[in-house]
Structure formats: C-alpha cells, structure tokens
C-alpha cells in the first residue's frame, strides 16, 4: 500500500521531532557529568558574588558620584509621552481653573455692583444730611422770625407807652404852667389889694 506525499512529509517531521531532544525537557546525564555541572554552577555563583561585592549596587553609590548616579538613573523620555502627560494634566485641572476664573469674575462683578450701590447709598445719605441741615436751618429761621415778631411787638408796646408818657408829661407841664400863672395872678391881685388898702389907710390921715 502506497502512501501519499503529505503523509510521508508528516511522518518525516514526526520522526525528526522524535529524534531531536526538546530544549524544555530535562535530559538525563551520567553521574560524573552531573557532578561537574553542579560544580560549574557553584563557581559561577561565587564569581557573581565577588563581582557584586567589587562593583556594588546603584543604591550603594555615594551622592558625590554624580556621573555614576546619572548613568544609573537617567532615562530618555519620549516627547509624545511628555505631551500626552501635559495634555492630561491640563485636561485634569483646566475645568477647575476655568470654574475658579468664572467665580472670581462673578465676585469682581458683584463687588463692582456693591461698590456702586454703596456709593449711591452714600449719595442718598449725604442728600439726607443736607436736607436735615436745611430743615434745621429753616426751623431756626422760623424760631428767629418768631423772636423778631415778639421783639417788634414789645417795641411797639414800648413806643406806645413812651408816647403816652410823653403826653402825660406834656399835660403835667402845661398844668404846672397854668398853676404857676394862676399863682402869679393871685400874687399880683393880692399885691394890688395890699396897695389899695395901704392907699386907703393913708388918705384919711392926710
């Protein structure tokens, strides 16, 4: 019975895989070779420990050794990654910053409105103060006007009393003058009577 070409290729490939050992599968070694391999592994570990003791780790470097520290820690960063990080940072904080900006603008606007309102209230207060001062002045003027009216009335009363006193004094003066004239006439009459009596008394003697 003849086999086809694909079947032959499959059998050949299976035969090759069967003949070649797998790298992942452990291979059995003779006892002498196993001991030699173990000794080689111990020597490699010892050599690695010696190298680590000679060179030291990155954390054992002195701070003054900047070149060694930089060589051990510096890494090149992709600009695209930096740009993405920057954009992400901006996208993260930009909304809150915009909100804060709008809040600050609103506060400033409210402050401006408050200042204008306070100025208007101050103007009204000044107007009220001026009106109060004007009212007080008018009240004082009215009070002074009343005092002037009272003073005028008193002056008129004093003028009337002075006129009456003047008339009375004039009457008294005229009455005194009349009395003096009457007294003078009376004295003249008495003097004439005395003269006449003296003349009559003197005539019979002659």
UniProtKB/TrEMBL annotation:
One GO location term (cellular component): cytoplasm
Subcellular location as annotated: Cytoplasm
Highest taxon of source: Eukaryota
Swiss-Prot/TrEMBL keywords: Cytoplasm
InterPro entries: BLOC-1_pallidin, Snapin/Pallidin/Snn1
Pfam families: Snapin_Pallidin
Family according to the record: Belongs to the BLOC1S6 family.
Name of the protein in question: Biogenesis of lysosome-related organelles complex 1 subunit 6
Organism: Batillaria attramentaria
């Amino acid at each position: 019975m003849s086999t086809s070409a694909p079947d032959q290729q499959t059998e050949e490939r299976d035969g090759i895989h069967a003949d070649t050992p797998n790298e992942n599968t452990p291979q059995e070694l003779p006892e002498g070779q196993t001991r030699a391999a173990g000794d080689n592994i111990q020597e490699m570990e010892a050599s690695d420990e010696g190298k680590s003791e000679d060179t030291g780790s990155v954390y054992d470097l002195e701070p003054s050794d900047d070149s060694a520290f930089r060589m051990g820690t510096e890494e090149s960063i992709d600009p695209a990654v930096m740009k993405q990080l920057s954009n992400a940072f901006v996208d993260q904080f930009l909304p809150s910053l915009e909100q804060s900006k709008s809040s600050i603008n609103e506060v400033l606007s409210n402050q401006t409105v408050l200042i204008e309102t306070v100025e208007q209230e101050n103007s009204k207060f000044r107007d009220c103060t001026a009106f109060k001062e004007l009212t007080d002045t008018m009240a004082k003027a009215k009070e002074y006007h009343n005092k002037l009216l009272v003073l005028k009335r008193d002056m008129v009363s004093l003028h009337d009393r002075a006129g009456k006193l003047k008339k009375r004094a004039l009457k008294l003066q005229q009455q005194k003058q009349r009395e003096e004239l009457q007294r003078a006439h009376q004295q003249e009459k008495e003097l004439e009577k005395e003269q006449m009596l003296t003349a009559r008394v003197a005539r019979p003697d002659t």
